[in-house]
Design brief:
With 507 residues, this protein is mainly beta. The chain has a 5-stranded mixed β-sheet, with no helix packed on it.
Length: 507
């Protein structure tokens, strides 16, 4: 144990000395710090650095561990003294924080004492304090990112997320050099952190790798994807024991996925079948296991997927769909009510039943190239998600769009009838002719027009079209924005099948 502390001490000295010339060393133009390493006495105390920024900056509050106080957490342009305070920590601990400024991020490493490594199970890591260093042994359950080395480690007590894996020389972004695969038994060391409620071991060091004795070599078809009409997938394995391979399908997936055949030998093949799929996309993670002569269990995993039908739902029904393990595709159509981030295409859309947040339409920059704006109608296909309690459509693609042109009533009356061209009119309600369907007269500073129907939103049919004005408390004198097409009835031009967009109560 004394040797361990001796080595840890000199490792820390080397780390700090290598950064001793790093006063304002960061090359970021937008923000600099007087030191990117902050040391706090193991008995508790404070340390201060200087943040020099060209504009407003802030720490990521989600990264701040419970044991550390940072003051202030944000600031403006110029120099700001930032103090880091922590109580005593006999076992030592450390954490990594990031300061955001403009579109850049500055890293600050906080170190308190010499970290003692504790042997633990996954369950003990999940229940233990933050910033404590743990050594855990388990199986590689799944690999999320092969650049930074983000993956899940599982043992008989639970599962933890590994956020960043160092290579054999202690470098980042070189995960593939380790040769880690799903099913390998690995021992890692690293500090615990909690980010957005997820327990993580951060930038772990790999102490030991024991290659799995069973491995997935290939699939037929290569993408392990069963078509919507049903079919089979064969998983080709290699097995380095004489004890055969067992297969486990998760209980919740056995209703649609079954085993057709299993061949034996050192290169077993397991074939799975799925019937036609009337629902959304679905997937199952199947586990293959074998034992060595000492009874030690080795595993490998494969994800078998099946395409599903795209479910066209109202927004209200979409929001009732489950989020956990939901791989289904959904089609939503609605009017863009606001744009939160045009670069990524983060918008809100609304139909007759409700409103939902869309986290991204297409790749970065795609939304801006479309020319879409507030008031336009979009049809999107994506998956169901939730972030910080907010339900949303994620990973969406633009399937269709309808341009809606704001126009004066006088200009609208000069347009030709066209059921495929949409306009938005805004004016004051001068008369309500039919309260059930929302037939009314609308007047702006240029003219008056008859609106044949004011429905609660896009997609309303049947009974859902009725009595919207009363439900929304809309009366004569209110200022109304409504979307519709130009048509003519008995020689009278009108806005047909109006879709409510917004209104303001009369003063």
């Amino acid at each position: 144990m004394k040797l361990k502390y001796f080595l840890s001490f000199f490792a820390l000295v080397a780390l700090l000395s290598s950064c001793s010339d790093d006063n304002a060393m960061t090359l970021l133009d937008e923000i600099q710090v007087s030191s990117s390493y902050v040391s706090i006495d193991v008995n508790g105390g404070s340390n201060t650095i200087t943040v020099n920024a060209k504009e407003a900056w802030s720490f990521d509050e989600a990264e701040l561990p419970a044991w550390l106080t940072v003051s202030p957490m944000n600031g403006g342009a110029g120099e700001t003294q930032v103090t880091f305070t922590a109580p005593a920590a006999p076992d030592g601990r450390n954490t990594v924080l990031h300061i955001a400024c403009a579109d850049k991020s500055q890293t600050v490493n906080v170190i308190q004492g010499l970290a003692v490594v504790h042997n633990a199970t996954c369950a003990e890591v999940l229940e233990g304090p933050e910033s404590k260093n743990y050594r855990v042994t388990g199986t590689v359950a799944s690999i999320v990112n092969t650049t930074y080395g983000n993956w899940y480690l599982r043992d008989e007590t639970g599962e933890i997320y590994i956020y960043g894996t160092l290579d054999a020389k202690g470098n980042e972004k070189n995960f593939l050099s380790l040769g880690l695969e799903v099913g390998d038994i690995v021992t890692v060391e690293g500090p615990k952190s909690v980010y957005n409620g997820t327990v993580e071991l951060v930038n772990v060091t790999v102490v030991k790798i024991q290659k799995s004795l069973v491995k997935v070599e290939s699939y037929d078809p290569a993408d392990a994807l069963i078509p919507v009409e049903g079919g089979t997938v064969a998983v080709n394995l290699s097995c380095k024991t004489n004890n055969g391979v067992s297969v486990e399908i998760p209980e919740e997936e056995r209703s649609w996925l079954s085993i057709v055949s299993v061949t034996g030998g050192s290169e077993p093949v397991v074939t799975f079948r799925a019937a036609a799929n009337a629902g959304g996309d679905r997937a199952a993670t199947v586990v293959f296991s074998t034992t060595d002569d000492d009874g030690k269990v080795y595993t490998a995993e494969a994800e078998i997927s099946q395409k599903g039908s795209i479910q066209a739902l109202s927004i209200a029904d979409f929001l009732l769909e489950p989020t956990e393990n939901n791989k289904s595709l959904y089609r939503l159509t609605g009017v863009i009510t606001s744009i939160a981030n045009p670069t990524y295409g983060n918008v809100y859309i609304r139909d007759w039943s409700g409103e939902v947040y869309v986290y991204g339409i297409g790749e970065k920059g795609f939304f801006e190239t479309t020319g879409l704006k507030v008031g336009d109608v979009v049809t999107l296909v994506g998956t169901r998600g939730v972030y910080k309690g907010t339900d949303q459509l994620v990973s969406s693609t633009l399937e269709d769009s309808k341009t809606v042109t704001p126009i004066s009533i006088d200009e609208f009356l000069d347009k030709e009838d066209n059921a495929d061209v949409y306009y938005m009119l805004t004016g004051n309600i001068t008369e309500i002719v039919n309260a059930t369907y929302g037939n009314l007269y609308l007047e702006d500073e240029t003219n008056t027009v008859y609106v044949y129907g004011c429905y609660p939103g896009w997609g309303a049919t049947g009974e859902n079209r009725k009595n919207w004005l009363a439900t929304a408390g809309i009366t004569v004198g209110d200022r109304l924005s409504v979307i519709g097409v130009k048509s003519t009835y008995n020689g009278t031009p009108q806005l047909a099948n109006g879709i409510y967009f917004s209104h303001e109560k009369a003063q």
